[in-house]
Write a structure and sequence with these properties.
The chain has 371 residues and is of the alpha+beta class. The protein is built from eleven helices and 13 strands. It has two domains: 59 residues; 206 residues, 2-Layer Sandwich (Nucleotidyltransferase, domain 5). Strand 5 and strand 6 form a beta hairpin.
Length: 371
């Protein structure tokens, strides 16, 4: 670096000295053109020197290399899956329709335990409890199997309202020995979690078989909507209990699906631990909506629909759900305005239940006989 500096210094002195001699000669011969030529030459030479210095500095200064680690992204060659489960939690039977939101294609879920070849989509809304163990129903044609706890949805409504002495809960009170009757609502909720978790787990498994590679993308998503009667959805206590049961069943569906049976004590402990571990988390994929909404939405999107005032009645196994609404269509967009809604205890199961109460026999065989 010293030899080079001396070389540059000698060049500078030579150039500046020459420039000075030229300027002195310019004073003897006053002419602007020679002076401008010399100045231009001086500037040009100075730029060359600066360039040499910059290049020398770059070559002498080591450059620190920075290594950036890049995580390779796995290419799947597809868009994320967005699937929606529509679960109609009925009094006697539960039905399910799944929809691929991205392609707007839907299909009906078939229950794997069903022995009804004509209606394999009907899932009995009941569980069987015997010897402190809980089972899913194997005989899908029977509404009142031996040791069965049926009409789970109605039982949840009664539990939320604290109506634990209701005659409809006769089989629940006799299914297991409780320390006191105040534990009955918790027992009913436990049965509902086991039932829904088993159903949801099977639905999830079939979805993953249908959509290969589901879960490989972090954006793959499944949501569930569960229908409950309009009047129940408007009652804060009832809708809250249904939401808790749905969220717990959704979270435990991986552990509780595909089981032949489970010990009730172990089930209670499992649910308790899940609540403790997830008390601050939210299940954003779980939603409760009024049952009549599904029927109304299907109607207003049909070809026969037209604006007007309508009364809808949904006659089920446990209740008759009614709603009155105004339907309008503006610029191709449908608008609904609900005026009233109520749930009447006039479902088909009321027939055999009232006969059983009158006869003083609420046993499964008697109820199945009158059904």
């Amino acid at each position: 670096m010293g030899i080079f500096s001396n070389f540059v210094k000698s060049i500078k002195e030579s150039l500046f000295g020459k420039a000075q001699d030229i300027s002195e000669k310019k004073q003897l011969k006053p002419s602007n053109k020679p002076q401008e030529k010399a100045s231009a030459q001086l500037i040009s030479d100075q730029k060359k020197i600066d360039k040499i210095l910059v290049e020398q500095t770059r070559s002498d200064t080591p450059i620190k290399e920075t290594k950036v680690e890049v995580t390779p992204v796995k290419k799947t060659g597809r868009d994320p899956y967005f699937l929606q489960i529509g679960l109609d939690f009925g009094t006697s039977y539960t039905k399910c329709i799944c929809r691929d939101i991205m392609t707007n294609k839907a299909w009906v879920h078939h229950y794997s335990r069903s022995i009804d070849k004509e209606r394999p989509f009907l899932i009995p809304s009941l569980v069987i409890v015997k010897e402190n163990k809980i089972f899913h129903a194997e005989d899908t044609k029977s509404h009142y199997p031996l040791n069965g706890l049926f009409h789970l949805k109605n039982a949840l409504v009664l539990a939320a309202n604290g109506d634990i002495d209701n005659p409809q809960l006769f089989t629940y009170r006799n299914a297991i020995k409780l320390k006191n009757k105040d534990q009955l609502p918790s027992f009913i909720a436990t049965c509902a979690v086991y039932y829904l978790a088993g159903v949801i787990g099977e639905i999830k498994s079939q979805i993953k078989l249908r959509f290969k590679g589901f879960g490989e993308l972090p954006e793959d998503y499944i949501a569930i909507n569960m229908a409950i009667p309009v009047d129940n959805a408007q009652d804060r206590r009832i809708s809250r209990l249904f939401n808790i049961v749905l969220c717990e069943a959704w979270g435990l569906s991986g552990e509780l699906s595909g089981l032949s049976y489970m010990d009730i004590t172990k089930l209670v402990s499992l649910i308790k631990n899940y609540r403790s571990e997830n008390k601050n988390s939210s299940n954003n994929g779980c939603f409760i909506y009024p049952e009549v909404s599904a029927n109304v939405q299907g109607f207003i999107r049909s070809r026969v629909s037209s604006p007007g005032v309508y009364l809808f009645s949904d006659a089920g196994g446990g209740t008759v759900d009614q709603s009155v609404f105004i339907f309008t269509r503006e610029d191709g967009i449908e608008h609904l305005h609900y005026l009233a809604g109520q749930v009447l205890p006039l479902g088909s199961s009321q027939i055999e239940n009232r006969i059983a109460q009158k006869c003083g026999d609420s046993g499964c065989k008697f109820l199945e006989l009158w059904r």
